[in-house]
């Protein structure tokens, strides 16, 4: 019959923790070694989050152990674990 099977498989792979680390570090646009909420929003946007602002808020809440409003390099591991559990896929 005349219709095509819509079974397009994008080349998506589950994101690894290494990849997440790279994405978060690249999202530190002002290179101060800290991830602000704005930078987190950008990172989650790159990961394909439906509502990056919400994920930035949740991720920050989860990882920001010293409550200074930014994720530093000591807190990054927690952020990576949080993002990893969400099971993002990257192309
Ligand atoms: Ca920064
Ligand atoms: Ca912090």
Automatic annotation (TrEMBL):
Q: Which residues form the EF-hand domain?
A: 15-50, 61-86
Against Gene3D superfamilies, the record matches this protein to: EF-hand
Q: Which domain of life is it from?
A: Eukaryota
Q: GO MF terms on file?
A: calcium ion binding
Keyword list, A-Z: Calcium
Protein name according to UniProt? EF-hand domain-containing protein
| Naturally occurring in which organism (per UniProt) | Populus tomentosa
């Amino acid at each position: 019959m005349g219709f095509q099977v819509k079974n397009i498989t994008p080349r998506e792979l589950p994101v690894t923790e290494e990849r997440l680390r790279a994405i978060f570090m690249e999202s530190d646009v002002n290179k101060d070694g800290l991830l602000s909420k704005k930078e987190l929003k950008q990172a989650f946007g790159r990961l394909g989050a439906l509502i990056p602002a919400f994920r930035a808020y949740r991720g920050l809440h989860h990882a920001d152990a010293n409550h200074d409003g930014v994720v530093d390099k000591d807190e990054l591991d927690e952020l990576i674990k949080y993002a990893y559990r969400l099971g993002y896929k990257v192309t």
